[in-house]
Amino acid sequence: MPVTDVTHDMDALTLTIVADFAAPPERIWQVYADPRQLERVWGPPTYPATVVDHDLRPGGRMTYYMTSPEGEKFAGYWEIATVDEPAGFTFDDGFAHLDFTPNTEMPVSRNEFRFAARDGGTRATYVSTYATADALQQVLDMGVVEGASSAINQIDALVS
């Protein structure tokens, strides 16, 4: 499994996931830069993602929804802050209504995805920072660790 470490720090308000892939950073970058590839790994296996808009540049926006096994849709968005191809990018990730307007009753996280060459492959570090400990606890209670880990673990099959 690519995910090698998961930690959350209630004082720093962060959730950090580390994964190691047997592919170079440029290949891991492509997974996020191509909406069709991203769809294959953004949601957990039982909640596949559909990317609707994908503009991976500073000021850009990505919208998507995940579909449950029962057919229920859950929407979200990214607001891209910085891009450093192929080393990573930063963005705000939020929950949305089905028309992709932000759901302000749900937490928003600031995310930093970094891809660094390591041992002939890539070490990916995913850091999500929340505004409050309550917001971090809310997503932990929703199963974000299990969901994000199972989603990230799908990348190996895609890039091999």
Structure in words:
The chain is an alpha+beta fold and 160 residues long. It has one domain: START domain (Alpha-D-Glucose-1,6-Bisphosphate, Chain A, domain 4, 2-Layer Sandwich), CATH 3.30.530. It has 5 helices and 8 strands. Strands 1-2-8-7-6-5-4-3 form an 8-stranded antiparallel sheet. The longest helix has 9 residues. It is globular. It starts with a strand and ends with a helix. The mean pLDDT is 96. InterPro entries: ASHA1/2-like_C, START-like_dom_sf. It comes from Pseudonocardia hydrocarbonoxydans. Belongs to the AHA1 family. This is Activator of HSP90 ATPase.
- Total helices: the number is 5
What is the arithmetic mean of pLDDT? 96
Percent range for helical residues?
10-25%
Biggest sheet strand line-up: 1-2-8-7-6-5-4-3
CATH topology label: Alpha-D-Glucose-1,6-Bisphosphate, Chain A, domain 4
Main CATH class = Alpha Beta
Major β-sheet annotation:
8 strands, antiparallel
Q: By CATH's scheme, which homologous superfamily applies?
A: START domain
Span between termini? 13 Å
What shape does the CA trace take?
globular
Structural class: alpha+beta
Order of helices and strands: EEHHEEEEEEHHH
C-alpha Rg (nearest Å): 15 Å
Q: Care to count the β-strands?
A: 8
Low-confidence stretches: none
Topology:
Layout: E1 3-9, E2 14-21, H1 25-33, H2 35-39, E3 49-54, E4 61-67, E5 73-84, E6 88-96, E7 108-118, E8 121-130, H3 133-141, H4 144-152, H5 155-159
Antiparallel strand pairs: 1-2, 2-8, 3-4, 4-5, 5-6, 6-7, 7-8
Structure keywords:
single chain; 160 residues; alpha+beta; Alpha-D-Glucose-1,6-Bisphosphate, Chain A, domain 4; eight-stranded antiparallel beta sheet; 5 helices; 23% helix; ASHA1/2-like_C; Activator of HSP90 ATPase
